[in-house]
Prior knowledge:
This protein is α/β, with parallel strands linked by helices. It has two domains: 2-27 and 62-151, Rossmann fold; 154-278, Hypothetical Protein Tm841, Chain: A,domain 3 (2-Layer Sandwich), CATH 3.30.1180.10. 43% of the residues lie in helices and 26% in strands. The chain has helices spanning 14-19, 44-54, 65-77, 94-104, 119-134, 139-152, 163-167, 173-181, 204-219, 235-248, 261-264, and strands at 2-7, 23-25, 28-31, 34-37, 59-61, 81-86, 110-114, 154-158, 185-191, 194-201, 225-231, 251-258, 272-278. The strands form three sheets. The protein has a six-stranded mixed β-sheet, with helices on both faces. Helix 1 links the parallel strand 1 (2-7) and strand 2 (23-25). The mean pLDDT is 92.
Amino acid sequence: MIKIVTDSTNNLSPDMLEQYDIRVAPITIQFGNETFEEGVDIDHDLFYRKIEELGVIPTSSQPTPAWFARFYQELMEQGHTILVITVTSKHSGTYDSAMLAKSMVPEADVEVFDSLSISLGTGWMILEAARAIEADHDRKRILQRLTEIRDRAELIITPATLKYLQMSGRVGRLQGALASLLNVKPIIALKDGVLEAMENVRTRGKALDRVIELIENAVGTSEPINLAVIHARAQEDGRKLLERAKERFNCQEILMADLVYSLAVHGGPGILGLFAYRV
């Protein structure tokens, strides 16, 4: 049987990961001399509290090859073939870790797929793969489907504040202060696996209007789509965005999640976004 391995940025719920018996290699989060593993010994509350207390953005690093090798060994001994689906290689070394681990367990039959996405973008690909495995599709067919999704998908996000971008050095402090004063909200799109700032709008409301508009430009409003609503500690705003999306699009299925903190760290609480692809 094919078994899926991924990393902790996928944003699928613990119940869903357990349902499909998916192995998860954690991203490492480091505050000074303190090291944590995402989803293992640190949660959202502790993560954001430490940022506020320390006034610094932590560093993060990809799972070690040893994490992946451990899963490869375990699954190989159980007689399985393995499909690894990782966060975009353009912003993380996770794909490289998963590839390096193949040389550590050369007898394992492993295929590594770069989602070129983040959060529930990766999560949707994992879910599609898991369902295809249940339908007894072979790995080649599953990889073809994942490539189709990757090529068709659109992900657009907007942060509520530039504070975390300033702290992380993603924008200059003076530029960030001026932008905050003007209530400017950047629109960020995932293009070929890279998060790129596309434009700025003046208010939160207009930013969300633009997120929906850009998704509409990409997938239309008539054809059925799978959709994901991504938020960072903004569940009520996420629900409102979800309701707007349901009214605008022909949604076949929807996922919503609080953005994993290894990804939310640079944008901070209040991030909102949509991921979508035609079914």
